[in-house]
User: What shape does this take?
Amino acid sequence: MKQTLTLTINGKSYSDEVEPRLLLIHYLREVAGLTGPHIGCETSICGACTVMLDGMAVKSCTMFAVQAEGRSVLTIEGLAQNGKLDPLQEAFWNEHALQCGFCTPGMIMTARQLLADNPSPSEQEIRHGLEGNLCRCTGYQHIVNAVKAVAKAGGA
Amino acid sequence: MISNAFSYHTPETLEEALAMLEDGGGKILAGGMSLIPLMKLRLASPESVVDLRRIPGLKAITEEGGAVRIGAMATHHEIEISPVIRGKCPLLGEAASAIGDIQVRNMGTIGGSVAHADPAADYPAALVALEARIRLRSANGERTVEASEFFVDAFTTAMEAGEIVVAIEVKEEEASEGFKYEKVAHPASGFPVVGVAVRVKKSGAGIAMARIGVTGMGPHAFRARNAEALLEGGAGAAAAAAVVGEGEETNSDLYASGEYRRHLARVHAGRAIAAALTRAL
Ligand SMILES: Cc1cc2nc3c(=O)[nH]c(=O)nc-3n(C[C@H](O)[C@H](O)[C@H](O)COP(=O)(O)OP(=O)(O)OC[C@H]3O[C@@H](n4cnc5c(N)ncnc54)[C@H](O)[C@@H]3O)c2cc1C
Ligand code: FES
Ligand code: FES
Assistant: This one.
């Protein structure tokens, strides 16, 4: 049976009739039309589907959309303001922190919480903080460099 | 990967939640980090899902009269950053930090972890070493079960049908105690192949108190009481570590045989004891 889901995504309010078993990632991509968050593994491992829920990074393939009722979701689409990339996006660009880019939207969301919790992380802390996000291309070093660059420049 | 259909409920009180679970067709949803993967695989297909997230007070981490009470819905992340946990039972915080990744720690809860009783969960090692007590609520009232009696078998606890974990209670670790949680993470899943939690208190050159909890080695977490007794009796860390897991059942899978797990438990007990001793005052 469908039920009404009301939530805020990237500052905009949404209300839709959804089945409780609809996963948040499917809601975001197929109902709300936000295809920034990706589906990599769909089994809670890769982190490509990571979005922020009330400021915390979560794997949206491991959450029912109805669990987001009344809450606030931030996806990669919500970062750039007036066409200007946010500091993490800018740093990923400058530091070549992506190749195919598939992992990037999730990686940036997790990095956002990492920097909010710990504004000047060590290399080891960055690697520990990003454990839930897999990248098949970069070998991680440039991703770590990008997060470091943002921290050095004063935060996300 | 779409689960079977279910109805979704968000009760506002424990009484309401208990009533919703009465017919046995429902499942509690806490962080969903174990239940949702099972539902997606259709290994679990509850008719209704009762999400505890709106029940007030279930998340609180408080301290009173030498004991710390951790609400069942406190997330792993809330536990790892809690000043109360850091100050009063840092061993639990160290175990919380070792769980999964930040996305899992943001959602997953301590109540869900103990109720699920994965034989490879991190918390149980710390909880048995801390002599924690699990508080359960049912329609008949509340009761408490010691952690060492709570984990009965793989995915099996002392909980009865219709009971909800409401809190975990832990006596404060003394400030002079040393502690350490050592984990051998599975390279793919990140779950512990073996995890060892140690607490020690020094007295002069000896050890006045030792507690050792082991997870991952067997079907459920256990206290290595034989090793604790050796440490307290002055036998030394190497002799104590060498008997960890003696007589305990082991788990075995493609990655690690039972014997290898027992070996890991001993090696890492030795390291955890040494690290805990350096932290003890
Ligand atoms: C990618 C990934 C990696 C992980 N790595 C680790 C790891 O390294 N170490 C580790 O220990 N764990 C790990 N986990 C598991 C994680 O810690 C889970 O959060 C935990 O096992 C379950 O907690 P939950 O709050 O998510 O419970 P849920 O998934 O919501 O529920 C689990 C079970 O417990 C029941 N339940 C939940 N709350 C209660 C309650 N209060 N009273 C009674 N029953 C209840 C539910 O009905 C269900 O049967 C990992 C999970 C994932 C997805
Ligand atoms: S798609 Fe969600 S973790 Fe991989
Ligand atoms: S850039 Fe291709 S997966 Fe990370």
